[in-house]
UniProtKB/TrEMBL annotation, chain A:
Biological processes per GO annotation: protein retention in ER lumen; protein transport; vesicle-mediated transport
PANTHER family noted in UniProt: ER LUMEN PROTEIN RETAINING RECEPTOR (PTHR10585)
Family: Belongs to the ERD2 family.
Topology in the lipid bilayer: Multi-pass membrane protein
Intracellular or extracellular location(s): Cytoplasmic vesicle, COPI-coated vesicle membrane; Endoplasmic reticulum membrane; Golgi apparatus membrane
Gene Ontology annotations for the cellular component aspect, listed alphabetically: COPI-coated vesicle membrane; endoplasmic reticulum membrane; Golgi membrane
The protein's name in its UniProt record: ER lumen protein-retaining receptor
Sorted UniProt keywords: Cytoplasmic vesicle, Endoplasmic reticulum, ER-Golgi transport, Membrane, Protein transport, Receptor, Transmembrane, Transmembrane helix, Transport
UniProt source species: Nothobranchius furzeri
Length: 212, 10
């Protein structure tokens, strides 16, 4: 465990909690892509199946359980409890265009051709693109609430910090996971355009709105 | 188990 991974994990946790609290406190999930949240729930479910087979540390287990729990709570709020506030008309990204290629790739490029490992690989690939329905929704409506942009910032920051963590681990531990690194780079790149808007607009007190 | 990959990151 190094400082980059720890702050990366905490940044990820912050993102998840910010989103859940925003929805809970405002009693509304307007502007939030339910599809992205379902994909994240699927990511955590398929990645953390090793909760049942191996114990790594109390920290590891606790974080996994919190991530899974929060992601299902978010999906529950969007599709069940606060369904009336869900903006389904603008959440039109076709997720099968992500799931099918990602599933195929997980079968072809993995560390070990076993069910658990293929599901882990699937979760890594899927996570890298799971935010696309949310970004697509923002590009469609042309704006995002400031709190939603904080969520996206912490979610992007988490993967950027993981990239530094992997450089650190490569130098100091000889650790190198090509699948995680390539997917992590792709994931971070997807946030670059958003990061630019966040720094130039939101941090200067303006609302994030895109030119028509 | 043999050949099993251990992932220690989240």
């Amino acid at each position: 465990m190094n400082i980059f991974r720890l702050t990366g994990d905490l940044s990820h946790l912050a993102a998840i909690i910010i989103l859940l609290l925003k929805i809970w406190k405002s009693r509304s999930c307007a502007g939030i892509s339910g599809k992205s949240q379902v994909l994240f729930a699927l990511v955590f479910t398929t990645r953390y199946l090793d909760l049942l087979t191996s114990f790594i540390s109390l920290y590891n287990t606790t974080m996994k359980v919190i991530y899974i729990g929060c992601s299902y709570a978010t999906v529950y709020l969007i599709y069940m409890k606060l369904k009336a506030t869900y903006d389904g008309n603008h959440d039109t990204f076709r997720v099968e265009f992500l799931i099918v290629p990602v599933g195929g790739l997980a079968f072809l490029v993995n560390h070990d051709f076993s069910p658990l490992e293929i599901l882990w690989t699937f979760s890594i690939y899927l996570e890298s693109v799971a935010i696309l329905p949310q970004l697509f929704m923002i590009s469609k409506t042309g704006e995002a609430e400031t709190i939603t942009t904080h969520y996206l910032f912490f979610l992007g920051l988490y993967r950027a910090l993981y990239l530094i963590n992997w450089i650190w681990r490569f130098y100091f531990e000889g650790f190198f996971d090509m699948i995680a690194i390539v997917a992590g780079v792709v994931q971070t790149i997807l946030y670059c355009d958003f990061f630019y808007l966040y720094v130039t607009k939101v941090l200067k007190g303006k609302k994030l709105s895109l030119p028509a | 188990a043999e050949g099993e990959v251990l992932h220690d990151e989240l």
